[in-house]
Amino acid sequence: MKDERDEKLDLWLQQRAVTPASADLTQRIILQAQQVPQRKSVSLWQSVRDLFAEFHLPKPAYVLAGALAIGLVIGFSTPQYNETSANDVVAAQNFLSADETVL
Amino acid sequence: MATAWPEKDDNELLSLIQNGSSQAFSTLVERHTERFYRLAYRYLQSREAAEDVVQEAFIKLWENPGLWQPARNSKFTTWFYQIVVNLCLDLRKRKPHTTLDDGTQLIDEREPIDESMIRAQEQKMLEKEIAALPERQQMALNLCFGEGLTNQEAAEIMGLNLKALQSLIMRAKTTLKTRLKSIL
Fold first, then answer.
1. CA nearest B183 in A: which residue?
2. Which of A92, B24, B59, B65 could bond to B18 as cystine, CB 3.0-4.6 Å?
3. Which whole number is the average pLDDT over B61-81?
4. Searching chain B, which residue's CA lies closest to the CA of residue A11?
């Protein structure tokens, strides 16, 4: 149960004096904020979109880049083989061996 | 300056601030500066220091409005009290011997001189003893008695459970009653 001292202390604590703030405190805060740029918090998705926006290309460039990409895909997907005929190999060997006989 | 958008609540203003509205920021500052200044003053006992703390807190909010996340934070004032409390604690750590304002401004001129002098003297003693309490006990007293917050709100601001806060207040009051025995 609260005694008289408790009540008095509660009252004192509730009535503690506060020196008033400067009259211009609010205006000072507002003015200072006007000089400070805002930092926007950017989500991951937004930052990815911004990155793509940085590299924005006109439509013809997309068509060219697309054609190039398709060309590369086709080029790499075509199997490579040399059609060196056996005759060519023999001819080359004959030519080299003819050189050796001369020497 | 007249407050713009008095009909908007804090959450609406904060969402406008997040979109860069300086008018919404001005409204929020005008609405709450006094309240947060009072808390900072009660803790720091210096007008200059309390004003700096409140200014710093609001500028932080303006600079980085994304700090406020309505989904995570229950109420703007509760959340902002936490910021002010932390700034006060930081300032105390950086400048442990903040100068106290002299008590002359506390005297109410409407009262007879003797009465007001006695009250001013009592207030000075009370402030001195409160300043000697551990930091968290001081903050608990300031939030519950100075700001008139409920124990639950004060506990949330201080990041404590209700029982821990009640225990802080009880210990603070017991100490004060002992130290102020002669005048209570």
1. A5
2. B65
3. 88
4. B145
Look at A34 and B38 and tell me if their CB atoms are within 8 Å: no
Residues from chain B contacting residue A21 (CB–CB below 8 Å): 33-34, 37, 41, 47, 50-51, 54
B146/A10 CB distance under 8 A: no
Q: Which sign does the torsion angle of CA B64, B70, B73, B75 carry?
A: positive
Give chain B's domains with CATH numbers: 7-100 (1.10.1740.10), 112-184 (1.10.10.10)
Does residue B165 sit in helix, strand or coil? helix
pLDDT at B109: 52
Cβ-based neighbours of A81, under 8 Å, separated by 6 or more: none
Asked if the interface predicted TM-score (ipTM) of this complex is over 0.85, the answer is no
- Contact state of A14 with B148 under an 8 Å Cβ cutoff: yes
